[in-house]
Amino acid sequence: MLYHFNHNNMELPFAESYKMKMVEPIRKSTRAEREVWIKQAGYNLFGLKSEQVFIDLLTDSGTGAMSDRQWAAMMMGDESYAGATSYFNMKNAIREILGFEYYLPTHQGRAAENVLFSVLVKEGDVVPGNSHFDTTKGHIEFRKAKAVDCTIDEAFDTTLVHPFKGNVDEEKLENVLKTQGEKVPFIIVTVTCNSSGGQPVSVENLKMVRRLADKYGKIVVFDSARFAENAYFIKLREEGYKDKTIREIVLEMFSCADVMTMSAKKDAIVNMGGFIAMRNKELHAQASVFNIVFEGYITYGGMSGRDMNALAQGLYEGTDFEFLETRIRQVEYLGNRLMEFGIPLQQPIGGHGVFVDAKRFLCNVAKEEFQAQKLAVELYLESGVRGVEIGAILADRDPLTRENRFPALEFLRLAIPRRVYTNNHMDVVAVALKNLFDRRETIRKGFRIVHEAPIMRHFTVTLEHAD
Ligand code: F0G
Questions:
Q1: Is the CB of 108 under 6 A from ligand 1?
Q2: Which of 91, 211, 377, 463 has the least CB density, counted as fewest CB within 10 Å?
C-alpha cells in the first residue's frame, strides 16, 4: 500500500529577516518606583533616566540597532578633516539611492533644516506642505515665517481608513500659492508624514505637488526622515507599484523634489547623522556657507567619518524590502493587538509607530488638561513603557497671541525603534494599554503646566496634577 503524505502544508509564519548577536539588558521596575521617578521628572517623560524605562517607545529616531555591516563600515571610517573617503561613500549612496548630485552632511535632521532654511526662509514667508514636523515648523517660525498645513482632511479623522493620509490637498495648496504665492519660498512634503501618524504620501500626490510647484515656479523640498517606509506603503497600496522594487519607487518619489532634508536617525538606521541633498549647484554653494558656520566643513558637516560610513551602509539596508517588511509588520502587530482590545488609534497603522487617539481614549479628561500627556504618564506608571505626547503640549503656543494651540488630534505615539524589540515586548505594551482602557472612565483629571520654555516647550515642560 502506498503511503499517503498529508498535503495540507501550512504556510510558514512570518519571521524577522535578521538574527541577534549583541544584546543590552533592560530593567523592570515597580509601580511605586515609577511614581517617584515620574514626579521627579515633572510628569514629563523626557525627564526620565533611561534606566527608569523598561520598553522605550519615546522615538524611533537614533534608537535603532545597527547591523554587523554598519559596525564593520565604522571601522573603515576616514577621519580626515577634508575630502574623507567616508564623505564620498555617502555621496555615492545618496546619488545611487536618492538620485541627488550634491549634498551636505549635517549632524542631524534639524541641522539640515537650519542650514537650508538659512538660505531659503525669511521673515514674512509662508511655507505650505502636509503637516510639518515640529522642528521644521520651529525653524520656520523662528525666522518669523509661517507654516501652513495643507494635509487632506481625511488625515484628521482617525477612524477613517485611507491609504495615503499623508497626502497634500491640492485645493488647499493651490489656494496658498494663488493668494500668497509671492511669499512662498518652497513647498515642503514630509514622507512619511510623522505628525499625522507616520502616514504615507502617494506618488500620484507627489506628482501633483510637482505640477503645482512648476505652475507657480516654486522649489519642492522633501523632509525625508522616513522616505523608505513611505516607499514600502506605495509598493503595497498604490496601483501600478506592486512589482517595482523599493529603490525604483524611491527614485520615482524623489524625481518630484529639488531638495531633500534628511534625519538619517530613522530610515538610514544610524544613531546620529543627517544631510541636505539637492540638484542645484548654486543652492549647494549658498548652503555650504551656513553649513560651515553651523555644522562643520562641507565634507563632514558635524559627522565623524565612521558615522558617515555607517550612514551610507544604512541607506542600502534601510531600502531593502525584507528589512522594511520586518519593521513595518512589527508596528502593525502592535497596532492590531491594540485594535483587538478596542483601543482607538489612527488608522491605518503608520510606518514607524502606533498613534493612539487620546481624545477618544480619555474622553473624561479636558483637552486643556493635556489628554495625550495624561495617557502617556498613565502608561508609564502601569508598565514602565515610555511613549510620547503628540498633542497640545507639542503644538505649543501661537507665536503671536501666545495662546495654547489645541490641535485636531491628540496622540500618544508609540514609536518602535528599528531591529530593537521583539513582539513579546509589543505584547507587554498592548496589555498595559488594555488595562488602562478598561479603567478609562475613572481617569478624569489631567495636568497643568508649571514651567515651559518659550519655544519647543515639550522637551523641558514641567507639570503638576490638575486637581
Ligand atoms: N523631520 C521629521 C519628519 C522628523 O520626524 C524629525 C525628527 C526631524 C525632521 C528632525 O530630525 O531629530 O534628526 O533633528 N523626529 C524625531 C521623532 C525626533 O521622534 O519623531 P532630527
A1: yes
A2: 211
For residue 398, the domain's CATH number is: 3.90.1150.10
Rounded Cα distance between 380 and 85, Å, is 44
Question: Do the Cβ atoms of 306 and 86 come closer than 8 Å?
Answer: yes
Separation between Cα atoms, residue 225 and residue 344, nearest integer Å: 26
62 in any annotated domain:
no
The residue segments making up the domain with residue 406 are 31-53+321-465
Question: Residue type at 157?
Answer: D
Same domain, 351 and 211: no
Contact 256, 293 (CB under 8 A): no
pLDDT tens-digit map of 181-230: 999 999 999 999 998 899 999 999 999 999 999 999 999 999 999 999 99
φ/ψ (deg, to 5) at 184: -95, 110
Tell me the CA–centroid distance for residue 226 and ligand 1, in Å.
9
3-state helix, strand, coil in the chain (%, to 5): 45, 15, 40
Atom of ligand 1 nearest to the CA of 226: 3
User: Using CA atoms, how far apart are residues 338 and 418, in angstroms rounded to an integer?
Assistant: 20
Residue 261's H or E segment, with its range, is strand 259-263
CA distance 301 to 139: 19
Ligand 1, atom 13, lies closest to the CA of 109
Residues 325 and 314 in one domain: no
What does the angle CA 189 – CA 195 – CA 197 come to, to the nearest 5 degrees? 110
Residue where one domain finishes, among candidates 295, 318, 341: 318
CA 67 to chain centre: 21
- Determine the Cα–Cα distance for residues 129 and 43; give it in Å rounded to an integer: 33
Closest ligand 1 atom, CA of 388? 19
What is the set of active-site residues?
Answer: 81, 133-134, 223, 225, 266, 458
The tens digit of pLDDT for each residue in 129-146 reads 999 998 999 999 999 999
For the chain, counts of helices (H) and of strands (E): 16, 14
